[in-house]
Amino acid sequence: METLKYFKIHIKYEGTNYLGWQIQPQSPTIQEMIESVLFKLTGNKTRITGAGRTDSAVHALGQVAHFKIVTRLDEKALLKGLNGLLPDDIGITSISQCSPEFHSRYDATGKYYLYTVQQGPTPLILTKNFCHHIRSPLSIEKMSDASRHLLGTHNFMNFCAKSGRENEIFDRTILDIRIDHRPPFIFFHFLGKSFLYKMVRFMTGTLIKVGTGKIQPDTISKIFTEPEKYARLSGPVAPAKGLTLAKVFYEENPQLPDNDKICNFFDLSCVLNNRI
Fold first, then answer.
1. What share of the chain is helix, strand, coil (3-state, %, to 5)?
2. Is this model's pTM higher than 0.70 or not?
3. Which residues contact 170 (CB under 8 A, 6 or more apart)?
4. Which residues contact 184 (CB under 8 A, 6 or more apart)?
5. Are residues 114 and 92 in the same domain?
6. How far apart are the first and last CA of the chain?
7. Are 85 and 141 contacting, i.e. CB atoms less than 8 angstroms apart?
8. Whole-angstrom Cα distance, residue 156 to residue 197?
9. Is 102 part of any domain?
10. CB–CB of 48/39 below 8 Å?
11. Are 48 and 31 in contact (CB under 8 A)?
């Protein structure tokens, strides 16, 4: 018997061939693809709400979404059907029924974003869609020092792009940042309660500028305290392809994973660990 059911799903995807998560006049998008398959499986239309609206070419390991739909199918049947019909660059890792009150975005207690840089003279072919390639040497020590100035609650107006939303609040809280160096890769881990439009990519671009010696680590603090003088030194926006939404938290006190648990967002651990 068909009944109204509420579902929570975990999704991973490679964003290279998509114009981001959210449905828009152009296509394809991740949301559009999943909603289209759900219609094929159930004969009913539904709107999926994601925890984060990842941009064009941004990837995800831990996107979370919720939806309601009239169907006779249970979780196992939906999981099998979705993964059977979705393209191979989108995967549903789990699906479960949830409370009608659950909201993937508003109930989140934190989000973990991973930004990956490949440093060296030439780009690695197998990772080129997932990493920002930088030829110049980067100082891990200086970038780690600079990252401490981003922690806490600040007005991040100068570390984001304009979203077009009226009366936007720019105060955000960064809970933790860690930078891991596993040559030839540099992993920037960001944990925050929420993020502004392109905020992670702005922060990454600014840290890279510190790493190349173009600005000093304490410049970030000055951008917050003396924006009229130093705002122009933030950024640039790091390319989208290096960014992955790694995890969305719903429990209290979210934390970054240990530094020996590098987020393997494209299931090629041998490449990430420089073994081939």
1. 25, 30, 45
2. yes
3. 155, 156, 157, 160, 196
4. 118, 119, 120, 124, 274
5. no
6. 52
7. no
8. 10
9. no
10. no
11. yes
Residue with tokens 């018997």, as numbered in its chain: 1
Encoded amino acid at 272, one letter: L
pLDDT tens string, the chain, 276 residues long: the values are 889 999 999 999 999 999 999 998 888 999 999 999 999 999 999 999 999 999 999 999 999 999 999 999 999 999 999 999 999 999 999 999 999 999 999 999 999 999 999 999 999 988 999 999 999 999 999 999 999 999 999 999 999 998 767 788 999 999 999 999 999 999 999 999 999 999 999 999 999 999 999 999 999 999 999 999 999 999 999 999 999 999 999 999 999 988 655 544 444 443 444 433
CA–CA gap between residue 108 and residue 249 (Å, rounded): 6
56-to-104, 117, 128 alpha-carbon distances in Å: 20, 18, 16
Q: What is the largest CA-CA distance in the chain?
A: 65
Q: Which residue bears the tokens 């926006």?
A: 237
Q: How many domains does the chain have?
A: 2
The residue whose two tokens read 């970030």 is 220
Do 126 and 233 fall into the same domain? yes
Residues with catalytic function: 55
* 41 and 118 assigned to the same domain: no
Distances (CA, A) of 114 to 7, 67, 194, 218: 26, 26, 14, 23
